[in-house]
Sequence to fold (690 residues):
Amino acid sequence: MRRVLTPGAYAPGATVVHRLDPRAKLVCLLASSVAAFAAPAPWGLAVVALGLLATLVASRTSPATVLRGLRPAALILALSVVSNAVVLVGQPGVSVEGLARSAAVVCRIALVVGFALAFSSTTPPPAMADGLAALMAPLRRVGVPVGAIAMSASIALRFIPLTVEEVDRIRCAQRARGARLDEGGMLRRVRSWGQVLVPLFVGLFRRADELASAMCDRCYTGEQTVLLGPLARRDWAALVACAAWAVAAVAL
Amino acid sequence: MIEVRDACFSFDGEKNVLDRVSLCLRAGECVVLRGSNGSGKSTLARLLNGSLVPTSGAVLVDGQGEGLAQLVGYVRQDPRNQIVSAIVSDEVAFGPRNLGLPREEVLKRVGEALEACGISALRDRMTSELSGGEQQLVALAGVLAMRPRYLVLDEATAMLDRQTRGRVARIAEAAAASGVGVLEISHRPVLVADRVLTMGSGRFSEADEPPAQSAPPVRPRATSMTSTLRGEHLTVAYGEKPVLRDLSLNLRGLTLLTGASGAGKTTLARVLAGVLAPDAGEVTLDGRPVRAGDVGLAFQRPEDQLFCDTVLDDIAYGPFAQGLPEKEALASAREAARSLGLAEELLDRSPFELSGGQMRRVALAGVIAAMPGAYVFDEPTAGLDERGIRDLLELVARLVGEGASVVVITHDPEEWEPLSPAVVCLEDGELREGSVHA
Fold:
């Protein structure tokens, strides 16, 4: 089947960023998100942007991926820039100050999306779940089912490609039996998607059931052995560098 | 020892799928369980690992009645329904981690299981990128890493090519030699068995399956009326990876398409049926370009092909898509169901509740109901019992006799010998030289 490339999907590789421990990467992601929102424009933001550039280079993520990741939100972002720039009350016109302010906000969002994509495309879903569980471990003491939450996150991540696969399968099955899904006017195409949706939901529930029974067969109870070992020296180095950079960006 | 004593099981509380079955499987023993489609083999297997509980009777594993999943490893037909993780090493670690073993022990077992299955090189790969055969080996490694005392292989080799079947057999035999009791459920067992059991409608039957009494199907002959399915200069690539390379072929009458896993057979099937547009080249049926629906396509996994709520709706989908009025569409669906030997009472059930073999028949019925001019069947005999295979051969002989061209993708060309088909072998996206008529 032809693969659909979703921005941010895990791409196997052996770069420095791939090899970092998922816990270290999660903390770095948190720090850089905070920095992206707290850094003052324009110089603070420029430092953050340099950090993103370094991350993208180190993880061999193409900037085009970040742009593709922003595409779903492009319309809303563009609207917010325009609505901040156009002044209708008082003396109608274009406010340069508003334009600068909203452009900075859009930049911040783009930076966060960039960091998130760099993280998700270098970290396999099970490692993300393990990292999340490790960071939430202290909450276990107050009775939070950390293992179950991490597993839910991992399964939710797993169902994204599964949903794409299932849509593909149903459309393929319907076309093989003579359904003309890609022909006709707009209305017919929309209706043909309706034909896909019902079996899609039934199919996904079935897949979920099968996954559950496969997990039971392998003795899943909710708690698992933690597989992450102690942090390596490069993980500590990355954490220190990231902290210094984030503080510098915010303090500028 | 696994002991099943007078176990009954029923899904609906009325009809017993298993009827007072007793079985015993000793440590280190290899037992093969055969039986027709829908006779209750998989249900029995699921009683053994505790995922189903008998309505009456008892299942005891080494004297225990609880926590059977840890003692009895279960490998299913379709690895896709079994793999829970996106990364191979994490998948194999899943079971040991659930057992609460310490980290070092989990890592050691993952290494051992990958080694035992000969897939250490796949350790860091993504499970979704692997071929079906590799995925099945990963599933097997995931079960072995839990060090079960018994191993149930439920049609685990039905969808594998010959080489991978042999690998699974060697792994299971090595496990048996180290004291693991192995139960293989299969129509074409790969293990050398200590005992063979046969099931028929919910109980063990003394005799083997009823011998094939009927005469072999008549060899069909292509006539001047027979349709011609022609592919010219077909090229398909997935990303960077070429799958079909400038492939041309001319298919008339019955043709078998063979080749190892990953040779591009399924891709070729989709291209021939007009479901996948080739990057270059063209497929024609009797000179006209093929559109989706002109050539009937039966998928490798029947569950991939089914999507309606009831069996009858699913079979009637093709006729409806052709624009037939309801009455005629349903009539041709019923006719197709009859020709595949599907009982009337199955027609109102959900196709996903059926056994693997019955699902296969529903999928095939859905393809022939629309009466296309040519057919492509992808591994149609996987999971079918002997009778099912005989019926299928007769059906294909009839279709060819009626003037349709049929392409059958298979790992078992000898099953089709009675129909003396032409054989084409695909290797790395090209037809192998010297593809001869059998």
Remarks:
- DSSP finds twelve helices and 19 strands in chain B.
- The radius of gyration of chain B is 23 Å.
- Residues 403 and 412 of chain B are 25 Å apart (CA to CA).
- The first helix of chain B runs from residue 41 to 48.
